[in-house]
Design a protein that fits this description.
The protein is 42% helix and 14% strand. By secondary structure, the chain is α/β, with parallel strands linked by helices. It is globular. The model has no long low-confidence stretch (mean pLDDT 93).
Length: 252
């Protein structure tokens, strides 16, 4: 029975991963900023499975809040066997000379610093036990840059670098590190990017079949159920219609 901590678990990939992993009837520690959504999800999982769920409401951008939350985890949910660093976002598609400093800071603080804060709190206990698995949810943007996405892409390149660095540093302790880099996926990602503008968000996925959150959840489940001697280091997954951030086949 594994203890799995998932950040950004109230929507999108995080929610789908939580629901999928709850079928194993283990223990889930789910974190998010949105208390209402998170508690609703935890309640649904508890009622539909034998999985035990612990909700933690905090913002990964706040290192003190991260430390307080992680330190509050009861013994029943320890040790943490799996950490899924899922919390992340993109904001707008403005050119570099017109973009909002606030949007930049939000992406940098969530996508890079938040991942680091949580990992720094969880990794030591994994190293001490010489056991554990860290999964970092990144993006195909970790490999390329597209128009209007310079800062978002700049926050995704470090996810790839950090995943490789973690793998190197934690290799002596037998800890697995996997990065999953999805392409275009129809979740709440574009709604967040465009500040709730549904018309803009829907347009991103016009003309082709994008990934959905369950696709990524299925991959996480597969990754976590490989034999102990197998580590999937990086998985890049896109819709069949997508080559990269700018080349997508239009089915119209």
């Amino acid at each position: 029975m594994r203890n799995i901590l998932i950040t950004g678990a109230s929507t999108g990939f995080g929610e789908a991963i939580a629901r999928t992993m709850s079928r194993e009837n283990g223990r889930l520690i789910l974190t998010a900023r949105s208390e209402d959504k998170l508690l609703k999800l935890c309640d649904e999982i508890t009622k539909s499975t034998d999985c035990k769920v612990l909700p933690l409401v905090f913002d990964v951008r706040d290192p003190q809040a991260c430390e307080k939350a992680i330190n509050s985890i009861p013994d029943e949910f320890k040790p943490i066997d799996v950490l899924v660093n899922n919390a992340g976002l993109a904001v707008e598609l403005d050119p570099i000379h017109e973009a909002s400093l606030e949007d930049w800071e939000r992406m940098i603080d969530t996508n890079i610093k938040g991942l680091l804060y949580i990992t720094r709190l969880i990794a030591p206990q994994m190293a001490e036990r010489k056991s554990g698995h860290i999964i970092n949810l990144g993006s195909t943007a970790s490999h390329e840059v597209y128009k209007g996405g310079s800062v978002y892409c700049a926050t995704q390149h470090p996810v790839l670098a950090l995943s490789k660095g973690m793998r190197t540093d934690l290799l002596p302790y037998g800890i697995k590190v996997t990065m999953i880099a999805p392409g275009a996926a129809e979740t709440n990602f574009s709604m967040v990017r465009f500040h709730g503008d549904k018309a803009k968000a829907d347009k991103v996925y016009e003309g082709y079949d994008p990934l959905v959150a369950q696709d990524i959840a299925d991959i996480v489940e597969f990754v976590l159920n490989r034999p102990p001697h197998v580590c999937l280091n990086e998985i890049i997954v896109t819709p069949t219609a997508q080559f990269n951030g700018v080349i997508v086949r239009d089915n119209h």
